[in-house]
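idk why but the lab printer keeps eating my pages so im just putting this in chat instead. protein + iron/sulfur cluster:
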Amino acid sequence: MLEIIRPSAPFYVQFEVTDACNHRCFFCYNEAAKSRGAQLSTDEAKRLLDQMREAGVFSVNFNGGEPLSRPDFFELAEHAKTLGFDIHLNTNATLIDDDTADRLAGLFPSLCTSALAATPEKHDKLVGGVPGAFMRMQAGVNRVLKRGMMVEVNVCTFKGNYQELFDIAAVMARPGVHVFCVTRYIMASPTGADQVLGVPETLEVLSSLERIKQELPTYNEVKLPGPVPYCELPPEHHARLQAWNTPCQAGYGLCRISPQGDMTPCPLSDHKIGNIREQGFSALWQSSRWDSFTHIEHLPTACRKCEDLQSCRGGCIYYDDCLVACGHTPQTRKWIS
Ligand code: SF4
Ligand code: SF4
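predcted complex ->
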């Protein structure tokens, strides 16, 4: 049986500093409107960063919600920077005025933002009906680029926008916007079933990525970070997937800390290992609750027996779990024992 060595600390941590957000994207798993309890205080969050550093974590990604809506965001980012972390930021970029851009550029080499459509009207609608959101995002991006930061653009792709991936990439393309990323929509609630990409749509996404890489040279990197399980597509496309997929690191190179201090394998997972208010970061990372990851028992039986396991690694491991939790049946070999 294949065993995977878990390192003594994750390489990077997705630190969700708040559930709050000024957008209401239909696909968001954060459910910003619902309170999940008191988020970590400034002191608790700084103590957590200290513990992560002691444990040997290399990189911290500030995520949310919208991290810039947290009043002490810069205090936390400065603390992380002082500790020597490689720090990153996911933001919708709409709250970046000139002062914020100055402060960000003093701390972060780059940020990752989100574009959902090639036109302002459609993007504004998809982020929950927020007029001006697309233009504010573009202005925020331009402000940080002017100050020398690099920008990564992520598109959450679903049935309503997968055909315009190339157009979105073209609208966002400019020097300094160096990475274009596509993630497939993951069901956050049963009402989103009609937006899940099927095989024909996923194949079209791969074709769009190939075209973007060829025709838009300002992008140094074009990525598909939520890997597609090989068995979801016909075998003749597996080599294409191998070229695009980035193997899932959940539970090995990566964990997530929620705004309330819960440690889970990744932001999509509700598999709670424990809470940082009750145990230190290292103790949680070394908890026996991770044993299923060492023996890859967190993957379905079909994956554990699969000859493609080494390169496929089960795809995005929580993608299908979210579908199942929403009453959807994934159409992959993965689910046949
Ligand atoms: S069974 Fe699992 S490892 Fe095999 S191709 Fe499907 S998702 Fe990948
Ligand atoms: S489960 Fe999916 S979203 Fe989570 S780390 Fe793995 S690939 Fe990324």
